[in-house]
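note to self: dont lose this again. the chain is below, predicted strucutre after it. 293 aa total, dont forget to put it in the shared folder this time
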Amino acid sequence: MTAPPARRPTLADRGIDGVTLLVLPAALFVVLLFVYPFLYGLLLSFAPKEGGLLGNYTRFFSDPYMYGTIWLTLRLALPVTLLNIALSVPIAMQVRHMKHQRLLTTILVLPITLGTVLVAEGLLNYLGPQGWLNRTLILFGLIERPIRLVHNYWGVFISLVITGFPFTFLLTLSMISGIDPALEQAAATLGARARQRFRHIVLPLIVPGLAVTFCLAFVDAFSVFPSAVMLGAPAGETRVISFAAAQAAFEQYDYSYASAIAMIMAVVQFGFVGLVLTLRGLFYKGPAGGGKG
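---
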């Protein structure tokens, strides 16, 4: 009589969790597409054409025309992010009770499917000197000469609001829709008005999630590029930091300097995200994802 064949050891026998291995493809994806390019860019930024190890960074911060791009970008990104969140909350509060919520939500998020370039082209046709808006206002005698709404700060600002609003709206709607209606109903039976219910029930629950929404929307707005070129004044008031990096890479062919600018851009973004999440952590101790509190 022959002995039965030995059982092949499983991953569990070797102390390896098979379910955990499912994370490996995603981890490999992140390393190849995000971690490796970031580290490569970081190392490249310390290999300037001229100067020492910090030559690129010294060059950037010694040129007011270059380090001024940080302020010009913040001047766009911060107001746009705050405005999008301020618009998203009241609209999401109304949309959650509507009968045709899906249809209205689809209409509101439509700009995010068009892309920034297509939105910019549409705004050029609509808000340009010969666009529909100016021609209509002149036709009805409301203005004598076209209003300048493109190729300046406001053109980029409007474009960022249109493309960024759907993103903040979807996140805000998901947070507000997840709040148990019984909480507001109980407060209403006790005589709380709509404003009081929002202030004392809804707002405390969504503030942690709004902090995360702010971070994501701010990073998206801070990296603006197509809108700043097509609708702004890239040589003047909308010379954002991403445009400065593109100029260094594709006009000066100085990839090391462009990498340094990209690293500075990342540091500013990480700084604001870290500040907001730190403030959020003072009031909220929960999952990092931060849906409703």
